[in-house]
Amino acid sequence: MRGSWQRETALTNNIANADTPGYQPQEVDFESQLQSAVSGGSSPEEAQFETVTRPAEAGPNGTAVSVDQESAKLAENGLDYQALTEVLGARDSIVRSAMGINA
C-alpha cells in the first residue's frame, strides 16, 4: 500500500505541474519492486520504492505532462489501492477468525 500511496503522490504532483514549463513527470513502479522483493525471498514490507523522473519530450506547452494520461494513471492507481485494501481486510478477517476473535 505504501508504494501505491507513493505513486499517487507522484501522479498528483505531475498533474499539479502540468503547466510548469520544463517540468519532467515523476513515476513510481512499485509493482516491479514488490515482485523483486518477493521473488528474492524478502518480505513485501521490506520493498523500497523510488520516485524517479521519467524522461520525456516536452510538448507544445513546454511541459512533458499529459493531464489526460496522468489522470487515467491516477484512476488506475486508485483501483489498485482499493484492491489492496480489500485484500488486507480479508487477510485480517482470516487471521481474526483463526484466533477466535469475532470483530
Q: How is this structure best described in words?
A:
This protein is mainly α. The chain has one domain (2-99). 56% of the residues lie in helices and 4% in strands. The chain is built from three helices and two strands; from the N terminus they run αβαβα. It has helices at 2-16, 30-39, 67-99; strands at 26-27, 52-53. Strands 1-2 form a two-stranded antiparallel sheet. 13% of the residues are buried.
What is the gist of this entry?
The chain is built from three helices and two strands. The protein has 103 residues and is mainly α.
Provide the number of structural domains: 1
Strand fraction equals: under 5%
The major sheet is characterized as: 2 strands, antiparallel
CA-atom Rg in angstroms: 18 Å
Helix-strand pattern, N to C? Answer: HEHEH
Note the total helix count.
Answer: 3
**Structural shape:** elongated
For the terminal residues, how far apart are their CA atoms? Answer: 23 Å
Count of individual beta strands: 2
The helix content, as a percent range, equals 55-70%
Write the layout of secondary structure elements.
Blueprint: H1 2-16, E1 26-27, H2 30-39, E2 52-53, H3 67-99
Antiparallel strand pairs: 1-2
Structural features:
about 100 residues; two-stranded antiparallel ribbon; 3 helices; elongated; mainly alpha; 2 strands
